[in-house]
Amino acid sequence: MSHLFVSTHPLVRHKLTLLRNETTDHKKFRELIREIAILLVYEATQDLATEPVMAKTPMGEAHGQRLLGNVGLVPVLRAGLGMVDGAWQMLPGAEVWHIGLSRDERTLQPVAYYSRLPVSPTVDVCLILDPMLATGGSAVATVDILKKWGAQRIKFVGIIGSRVGVERLSATHPDVPIYLAAIDEKLNDIGFIVPGLGDAGDRQFGTG
Ligand code: PRP
C-alpha cells in the first residue's frame, strides 16, 4: 500500500472547511486551493535531497543546505491548475508539465486529451497536482503516463480523496505516496465525492 498522509493541521482543516462551503465564491475558492496546495506540498517535499552549502551572512558564515535535483509539477487539467501557483511559490525552480484528462460522464473513465512531455524525463521527482481523487481513474492514468515516460519518483498531492479512490490508486501504484487534506467516505452514482466540495474545476473557473 502507498504511504498515505492526511493532514490534521488546523490551518488545513480551517481552509478546507471554507473550500467545501457552497457559499465560497470563485475568487476565494481559488485562493484556498492555492493556500492548501502550499501546505500539502510542504509535507510532500519532506524527503527532498539537499546538499550542504555555506551561507555568508553580514556577520559571518553559516552552515546551510541547498535543494538537489529537479522537481516536476504535474497539474491534471483543469482542476489541478489551481494548485500550481502555490506549489511553484514553494519550488520556484520546478518544471511544470501539464496533463489533460477529462472524465467521460457516462463511463467515468478518464480520457486523455493533452500531454507534451519531452522524450525522456527531465525531473527527479514528479508531484501530481489534482484536488479531487474520486474513483481514482484519473490519478491512476496520470501515474501510468508518467511511469511510461520513465519517471522514477512520483507523488500524488490532492485535496479531497474518496476512500475508494485512495484504495484504487494505492493498490495500482503502491510506490506512489498520497498527500491529502481529507478522505471522504462516499462517492455518489455520478462519481462525485460526498460531501466533497462539488466540481473543483467549475468552482475555480466559474463554469458551473
Ligand atoms: C475531476 C478532477 C479529477 C477527476 C477525478 O476532473 O479534477 O481530475 O475528476 O475523478 P476520478 O478520480 O473519478 O478520475 P474532471 O474530469 O471533472 O475535469 P475538469 O478538472 O476539467 O473539470
Topology:
Blueprint: E1 4-6, H1 10-20, H2 26-44, E2 50-57, E3 60-67, E4 71-77, H3 81-90, E5 95-96, E6 99-103, E7 110-115, E8 125-129, E9 132-133, H4 137-149, E10 153-157, E11 160-162, H5 163-172, E12 178-180, E13 182-184, E14 186-187, E15 193-194, H6 200-205
Parallel strand pairs: 1-12, 4-5, 4-6, 4-8, 8-10, 9-11, 10-12, 11-13
Antiparallel strand pairs: 2-3, 6-7, 14-15
The structure holds 1-O-pyrophosphono-5-O-phosphono-alpha-D-ribofuranose.
The site of 1-O-pyrophosphono-5-O-phosphono-alpha-D-ribofuranose has 22 residues, from strand 4, strand 6, strand 9, helix 4 and helix 6.
Q: What proportion of the residues form beta strands (DSSP E)?
A: 25-35%
Report the average pLDDT across residues.
Answer: 97
- Under CATH, the topology is which? Rossmann fold
The structural domain count equals: 1
Output the radius of gyration: 17 Å
What's a concise summary of this model?
With about 210 residues, the chain is an alpha/beta fold. It is about 35% helix and about 30% strand.
Overview of the molecule:
The protein has six helices and 15 strands. With 208 residues, it is α/β, with parallel strands linked by helices. The protein has a single domain, classed as Rossmann fold (3-Layer(aba) Sandwich), CATH 3.40.50.2020. The strands form four sheets. Strands 1, 4, 5, 6, 7, 8, 10 and 12 form an eight-stranded mixed β-sheet that branches. The longest helix has 19 residues, at 26-44. The chain starts with a strand and ends with a helix. The model has no long low-confidence stretch (mean pLDDT 97). Residues 76-79, 101-103, 108, 110, 130, 132-139, 165, 191, 200-201 line the site of 1-O-pyrophosphono-5-O-phosphono-alpha-D-ribofuranose (PRP).
